[in-house]
Specification:
The complex is a heterodimer. By secondary structure, chain A is an alpha/beta fold. Chain A has helices spanning about 10-15, 35-60, 65-90, 125-135, 160-180, 200-210, 250-255, 275-285, 290-305, 315-325, 325-330, 350-360, 390-405, 430-440, 440-445; strands spanning about 140, 145, 145-150, 185-190, 220, 225-230, 245-250, 265-270, 335, 370-375, 410-415, 420-425. In chain A, helix 5 (about 160-180) packs parallel to helix 13 (about 390-405). Chain A starts with 7 loop residues before the first helix and ends in a 9-residue tail after the last helix. In chain A, about 45% of the residues are buried. In chain B, strands 4-3-5-8-7-9 form a 6-stranded mixed sheet, with helices on both faces. A two-stranded antiparallel sheet of chain B has the order 1-2. Chain B is built from 14 helices and 12 strands. Chain B is extended and about 125 Å long. Chain B has helices spanning about 1-5, 10-40, 45-60, 65-75, 125-135, 170-185, 205-215, 255-260, 280-290, 295-310, 320-330, 330-335, 355-365, 395-410, and strands at about 145, 150, 150-155, 190-195, 225, 230-235, 250-255, 270-275, 340, 375-380, 415-420, 425-430. The chains are: A alpha/beta, B alpha/beta. At the A-B interface, helix 1, helix 2, helix 3, helix 4 and helix 5 of A face helix 2, helix 4, helix 5, helix 6 and strand 4 of B.
């Protein structure tokens, strides 16, 4: 760079901005020796090339002219993103692309009557005859009545992925309990009736299952947001031999206060018999979507204590039915509260560690709840009634609390109630059957139940 | 002016120095701008954002950047801006990692001695005697439910953490519902595993410690049926031919020639197989496990397998290739008790089956289990729970829906319903309700099938 131009004016102009090719031009040029001139030109060209190079690099970095080279990968990425978005949106939407266009929905009017099906009036005899003709499908197996646990969820993915994950975990929890206790599971993902939607969908489903499976003695409906937390406790069915329905609730809340949460239809059992069919026929009329359900909702809000204003739900409708037709139904309904056939989660989930310390599984009540029911959390939707973090953390804890009881047989345990990871708590042995006899819940009935350590 | 102070030569030197200095600074400035553009700190971000971008870019360079970014960007539109804090009732923007954490609850942990070579557990040599004795003293838990009907435990599972793919958990849910339906009809129990029993045996190897643990903990189980989470039952009426297996201990889908003659790595499939609860099975599990432990062992084993087996690509050892290798190289020891089944689709590769469902419905009926009406459609390579699989997302998910509906139709028909079409979630009635429901017979006889009847 050291061109020794003798004229200060030249130097000044060329020193400030080397990019300006002012050096060799100008009045002084013909006075410079040739060598000098060439040297200067060469020098300027060098600078020009250097600066041009740097400019290109800068442009490549900031504006992405280099995308000419990588454009293929970018375009592919863009395409992948769009495709994934489209597929996920399509899967999530309720509308099926293959569904025929149905036209505007027609709701049942207020004067129409709804029925779950043709009236059946001698189900008890029909069922008895069938059982006699089919001795290989008895309603009692090994001395215990055949129970069918029914649960389900919507056919489309949840609004958020975390909802499906907890549906999966809740189902695993139910599978574990039912395997240990010899109960069959039916998981429904189909809308059988276009009018009985939402929480009412269980009625046509349960009726259909009752009629198709005469060998089933008790049908147990359980919500998808309810988890078993006592894997040892078994429902004392012998207590209910004179009853046809078992539901968790409080009689004083029901009859004296007429509270809309005096019973809970998130977990209840009913016997496969004519009485149950009649009950469902009486229960259903408030269900059909549209003006019928809206009007019914107003009646329920007016008559039940504490009920907010919204369309009719199955729980309020059942309570109203029991209150208004008490003599017809209540003699066969057992309102159970000696154990948590339904256990409202808020008061329970923080006590798990204390329970582990003080009590043991098999109690089923407030000391070790049978079922923890996450009412109001609604993880499959977009919004719940409670803060998300509290709901999900509590569901995870309840799941792990129950899972520990299952893993106990295999010698494992979760690393704390909030952890999906497990640790080994019993070494492998060459005589594993000793542990099986001691820890398998099904065999433990023969020995005294030892307190959970 | 400076020239007057220092003298002409000095002045010139100084000016030269200044000029060089200016040039250097200019070039430095341009370099910084260039780097800013390259490392992704451009686009007018704040300095803090720049740092974040740099960190993120560097970490991306370490992993495979593109697929992960694609899925996260795809999710980005579904997520809202910032987490509103602990009080938020909105499930959309919640990160589950906030609540999952390990804690010490005081119960002692037993760890495997890492200095010892890997083993699935203490070696047991008299399992058959132990088990026979136990079965005798527990007559209420027989290993055969009826004549020719062994007690079977179907084992499947998935990760305890949410899937990376936003719809993955939904397909896992559908898949387990499908298995629940088949098993309820056929009197089979299910164990859905969500626990990683052994950190060393991760991924596809996780099934080995689980299978061994279940065999030893459930002596009443005669056959353990492992099934991958991406396999679905598509023939609800087909009952496995148990009498055919009365003298063998290990049933897999595959072909003898492909294993023993060709040593082809896909000559059998470990996505759906039966294993008898006996000493032989414990022995083969012990023989199978050594290639599994994560890290160097698995990598080295992978190289051996790629070298020895036909057409195997280069990757770490997987359980399927390891089993091919064991059977091919130790035929005399194991082959007599291994049955490679191909008369029906104990495992059916989805690629060749899913487009034919409509033809099958037209020409055949459930109960065949083979190419006419496959028992199992296995979505190998789709990986719906992971980030990306080996096949296009749309094809995989759409076909999984179709396979699910194909199987579900056979269940719904029992109750008088069917899906509107194989691609549709909605159902319609095909049989009206009647006042004499017991007089109606379901065509397939699945409501009260012979294989579910109890011993009288």
């Amino acid at each position: 760079m050291g061109s020794g131009g003798a004229f200060p004016a030249q130097k000044r102009s060329s020193g400030v901005l080397p990019m300006v090719n002012g050096g060799a031009r100008g009045r002084a040029a013909p006075l410079l020796p040739r060598g000098r001139q060439i040297h200067k030109t060469f020098h300027n060209v060098k600078i020009t090339i250097l600066c041009g190079f740097v400019t290109i690099l800068v442009l490549r970095g900031t504006i992405g002219i280099g995308s000419l080279v990588t454009s293929e990968a970018d375009a592919e990425n863009q395409h992948l993103i769009e495709e994934t978005n489209r597929i996920i949106a399509e899967i999530r939407s309720d509308r099926d692309p293959s569904d025929p266009d149905e036209g505007p929905e027609r709701f049942l009017g207020l004067n129409d009557t709804f029925s779950l099906g043709p009236r059946i009036s001698n189900w008890d005899e029909d069922r008895k005859v069938w059982l006699e003709k089919n001795p290989r499908f008895p309603s009692y197996v090994n001395g215990k009545p055949r129970i069918l646990l029914v649960t389900g969820s919507q056919p489309t993915p949840c609004d958020n992925a975390i909802g499906d994950h907890y549906l999966l975990k809740a189902l695993k929890n139910k599978i574990d309990y039912c395997r240990i206790h010899g109960i069959e599971i039916m998981y429904n993902m189909a809308h059988l009736d276009k009018e009985m939607t939402g929480y009412w969908a269980k009625l046509p489903l349960l009726r259909r299952l009752m009629l198709s499976h005469p060998e089933v003695e008790w049908i147990w409906w359980m919500d998808s947001d309810a988890l078993f937390t006592d894997m040892v406790f078994e429902i004392p069915v012998s207590k209910y031999k004179d009853y046809n329905m078992v539901i968790h609730g409080y009689p004083d809340l029901l009859f004296e206060q007429k509270s809309w949460i005096s019973l809970n239809t998130g977990s209840f059992l009913f016997r496969n018999c004519q009485w149950s069919l009649d009950l469902m026929d009486a229960w259903a009329p408030m269900g059909p979507k549209g003006p019928l359900r809206e009007e019914a909702g107003k009646i329920l809000t007016a008559n039940l204590k504490g009920r907010p204003a919204f369309e009719a739900d199955d729980q309020s409708a059942l309570i109203y039915l029991f209150l208004s037709q008490k003599e017809q139904w209540m003699s066969k309904v057992y309102v159970e509260n000696s154990f948590y056939l339904h256990g409202f989660w808020e008061g329970l989930v923080d006590q798990y560690e204390e329970m582990i310390e003080k009590y043991h599984p098999g109690l089923g009540d407030a000391r070790w709840p049978f079922v923890t029911h996450f009412v109001g959390c609604k993880p499959c939707g977009s919004y719940g009634d409670y803060p998300v973090e509290r709901c999900l953390k509590s569901m995870e804890r309840a799941f792990n609390f129950a899972d520990n009881q299952v893993l106990n047989l295999y010698g494992f345990r979760h690393r704390g109630l909030a952890s999906p990871n497990i640790k080994r708590i019993r070494n492998e042995t060459v005589a594993p059957l000793v542990n099986v006899d001691q820890f398998d819940i099904r065999h433990a009935a023969r020995h005294t139940t030892e307190p959970q350590s | 002016m400076i020239g007057r102070l220092l003298g002409p030569r000095r002045a010139r030197q100084l000016q030269r120095f200044v000029r060089n200095g200016k040039l250097t600074i200019l070039c430095l400035l341009l370099t910084v701008i260039m780097f800013r553009g390259y490392l992704g700190a451009g686009r007018f971000g704040t300095p803090e954002k720049d740092l974040d971008d740099i960190r993120v870019t560097l970490s991306y360079i370490r992993k495979r950047p593109e697929p992960r970014r694609v899925l996260e960007e795809a999710q980005g539109e579904l997520k809202s801006a910032e987490n509103a804090g602990a009080g938020s009732n909105n499930y959309a923007d919640f990160d589950i990692r906030k609540i999952l954490r390990d804690e010490d609850d005081g119960v002692e942990e037993f760890k495997r001695d890492p200095s010892q070579p890997y083993s699935l557990g203490s070696e047991i040599s008299n399992w058959d005697e132990q088990r026979a004795k136990w079965l005798q003293s527990n007559p209420k838990f027989p290993n055969f439910i009826r004549e020719n009907k062994p007690r079977v435990l179907l084992v499947t599972g998935s990760s305890p953490k949410p899937c990376e793919n936003p719809v993955g958990d939904h397909y896992l849910l559908k898949s387990i519902k499908n298995k629940i339906d088949y098993c309820r009809l056929h009197g089979i129990e299910i164990f859905y595993n969500m626990a990683l029993l052994d950190v060393e045996m991760s991924g596809f190897w996780a099934k080995l410690p689980l299978i061994r643990k279940l065999l030893l903990s459930h002596p009443e189980v005669e056959f353990l049926w492992w099934m991958d989470s991406d396999a679905m039952f598509t023939d609800m009426a087909f009952e496995l031919p148990w009498e055919r297996y009365k003298d063998v201990n290990f049933v897999l889908h595959g072909w003898d020639e492909m294993i023993y003659d060709q040593k082809n790595w896909i000559g059998l499939n470990t996505g759906s197989f039966l294993l008898r609860n006996c000493q032989w099975s414990l022995d083969i599990l012990d023989m199978w496990a050594p290639m599994g432990p994560k890290g160097k062992v698995r990598e080295e084993a992978g190289k051996v397998l790629t070298r020895e087996l036909k057409e195997r690509p280069v990757f770490e050892a997987d359980d399927q290739s390891a089993m091919v290798y064991i059977l091919a190289t130790q035929k005399e020891k194991w082959a007599s008790k291994v049955y490679l089944e191909n008369a029906y689709y104990l495992h059916g590769y989805w690629g060749i089956l899913v487009d034919k469902y409509e033809d099958m419905i037209e020409s055949y009926h459930p109960g065949y289990g083979d190419h006419r009406w496959p028992l199992v459609t296995h979505f190998v390579g789709c990986k719906p729970c992971g980030k990306f699989g080996d096949y296009p997302v749309e094809r995989c998910l759409k076909q999984m829906d179709r396979a699910f509906n194909f199987g579900d139709n056979q269940i719904l028909r029992m109750y008088g319903f069917t899906h509107d079409s194989l691609g549709s979630r909605s159902v319609r009635r095909i049989r009206n309700e009647t006042s004499t429901p017991l007089a109606v017979r379901d065509e397939l006889g699945l409501l009260h099938p012979a294989f579910k009847a109890v011993k009288v």
